[in-house]
Design goal:
Layout: E1 14-17, H1 30-42, E2 47-50, H2 62-76, E3 82-85, H3 91-104, E4 108-112, H4 121-134, E5 139-143, H5 145-148, H6 154-160, E6 166-171, H7 176-185, E7 189-192, H8 198-203, E8 208-211, H9 218-229, H10 233-242, H11 244-251, H12 257-268, H13 284-297
Parallel strand pairs: 1-2, 1-8, 2-3, 3-4, 4-5, 5-6, 6-7, 7-8
Helix pairs in contact: 1-2, 2-3, 3-4, 4-6, 6-7, 9-10, 11-13, 12-13
């Protein structure tokens, strides 16, 4: 028996928060970005998120962000939607980036809550409404208080869901009850932003995931959702469990995901290159551990 399908999510189910490849000199590697994007799509990603946390957005310029959208669009065509990260701590700057992403060919924007200034909920809500009012693209709200210092509270999300262009949430809140509350009271597409929650959130009505680990094992993570949809929830759970070690090493071992993902992609001969300062590259021990976990998961 298959599980009853939910309404089609706006950007697909299996989205990858793609790294931004750089050359050995640290310049933007547009050719590498196109090749990596094509590889991820061929391996099962049905959407790509560019210039997010894993894409090192704090250290890429506005021009580079737009160039990245154009290069990936050229590489994958219209096969999958592209969501561009445009969130900053400055509302005016975020509006400018959203308009630039729209012009460059993005299908949607990802907007993180303003960081550092720690605005109250009323100001956060006004920030998101201004961005949504300024662009014709659908907006995904990015709730990641561990990095921004401020939650997007459930009641704020419920109010924002009334805006016709605010369509989705990338959830890194680690508040599963709040996520279920918003899912039950809105039509927002809820994407797991923490890979350990991919299956759990999907099982209670989530739309899918925006995954960092999908840079490394896109087919395996997509299979978790496919198995669940086919009704084989036991195999879906087992595959999610098998991915735990790689998820842990990638996301919870004291290093940012951009560092660990690039370390393994470089080992695998896929486009990645170095990280930009202030990040530092992973050491040999970390790379070896990631490679071992990857080989265990992909062995069959």
């Amino acid at each position: 028996m298959t599980n009853a399908p939910s309404p089609a999510p706006p950007f697909g189910r299996a989205l990858c928060a793609m790294v931004t490849p750089f050359t050995t000199s640290g310049a933007l590697d547009l050719d590498g970005a196109g090749r990596l994007a094509a590889h991820l799509v061929a391996e099962g990603c049905d959407g790509l998120v560019l210039s997010g946390t894993t894409g090192e957005s704090p250290t890429t310029t506005d021009a580079e962000k737009a160039e990245l959208v154009r290069a990936v669009r050229s590489a994958v065509g219209d096969r999958v939607p592209l969501v561009a990260g445009v969130g900053t701590a400055d509302t005016r700057h975020t509006v400018e980036l959203a308009l630039a992403a729209e012009k460059a060919g993005a299908d949607g924007v990802l907007v993180v809550s303003p960081y550092y200034s720690r605005p109250p909920q009323e100001a956060i809500e006004a920030h998101f409404r201004r961005i949504a009012d300024s662009t014709g693209l659908p907006v995904t709200l990015y709730d990641i208080p561990g990095r921004t210092g401020t939650r997007i509270e459930p009641d704020t999300l419920i109010r924002l869901a009334e805006h016709p262009r605010i369509v989705a949430v990338k959830d890194c809140s680690y508040d599963f009850l709040a996520a279920q509350k918003v899912i039950s009271r809105t039509e927002l597409a809820y994407y797991a932003g923490c890979d350990e929650h991919n299956l759990a959130l999907y099982a209670v009505g989530g739309a899918g995931y925006v995954s960092t680990v999908a840079n490394l094992v896109p087919a395996q993570l997509r299979s978790v959702l496919d198995l669940f949809d086919s009704g084989d929830t036991t195999k879906a759970a087992l595959l999610q469990q098998r991915a735990t070690r790689l998820i842990e090493l990638t996301m919870s071992d004291g290093l940012p995901g951009a560092v660990t993902v690039k370390a393994l992609l470089n080992e695998l001969g896929l486009p990645a290159g170095p990280v930009r300062a202030p990040l530092l590259p992973a050491g040999r021990e970390t790379a070896d551990g990631l490679r071992a976990a990857y080989e265990e998961l992909t062995a069959g």
